[in-house]
UniProtKB/TrEMBL annotation:
Its EC number is 6.3.2.2. GO terms for molecular function: ATP binding; glutamate-cysteine ligase activity. It comes from Euplotes crassus. It catalyses: L-cysteine + L-glutamate + ATP = gamma-L-glutamyl-L-cysteine + ADP + phosphate + H(+). This is Glutamate--cysteine ligase. Belongs to the glutamate--cysteine ligase type 3 family. The keyword Transmembrane does not apply. Pathway: Sulfur metabolism; glutathione biosynthesis; glutathione from L-cysteine and L-glutamate: step 1/2.
Amino acid sequence: HYLSDHPYFCGDGINDGYKLKINQEWFDKLKDSGMTDRLAYHFASLFSHDSLVIFEDRLEFDPDSTEHFENLNSTNWNSVRFKPPPSYDSPIGWRVEFRPVDIQTTDFENGAYVALLNLLTKVINDFDVDFSLPISLSDINMERAHEIDAVTKQKFWWRTNIVKEGSDYTKNPAKDNNWAFFGEPDQNNFDPSNFAEMTIAEILEGSEEYSYKGLLPLIDEYMALNKFSEEDLKFYNVIFKFLAQRGRGEVKTGARYMRDFVLNHPDYQKDSVVNEKICYDLVKETTLLGARLKWDESFLGVEGEELEYE
């Protein structure tokens, strides 16, 4: 199950008909040891698989080490992966990996997606909002995302009522915004009326039709409330303008850029054969872009070229 979020992250309402194979013996042991049902279910699902790899220098079993567990956990490639500390005395804390995003051609693009996700986690924590979807809708989104030009041609299921069930709406720092949130929390947080099909542009920038503010405006509001410096605001505004342009189709995705490069190459005969010369030129082109030795505004927008980052 490598497409959707893992059910231990959320309540029963979101796991509509989604069942995983588990190791019942380990589920019972973990529950008896004090784990919650949800967390025990997660680990029991990991223990239902055989290890894919094992390292020669790790054949001897150390009962005080978590290396064997790490070996098993790290070879389950979920879209969102829960990672406990590697050992009881490790300075590394509890982590959740967000894994669906492919590595991009340039550092600028990678930085933009990382910045978006980083600030979005802060928005979720500070504004107490909820973007969760039923697994069935997440699966539909995954399938649609694989289509050509999905960013501009597909719609994706998204939550319109993002006020978290049980949260105190009156104490939310963004409550006074004219349409930051859609009314009061719904007692049935997984009612079908709380979800709608939106374009990527609407998900990022908002939809008046659904009284949904959008990820980027919510992040703007978070930065204003937390008094980000003028320098930081300038940096993030350039990045988020680029993401908005990509969502609207004003700049190309990496897939569309490479597809157009091949289609317009003088050696391409429109026969679906990408020969060695085309491959070489494409790799050369993307290498120049990745090293910032070339900037293509149709791919990366206008303002990012002057952005300084390490």
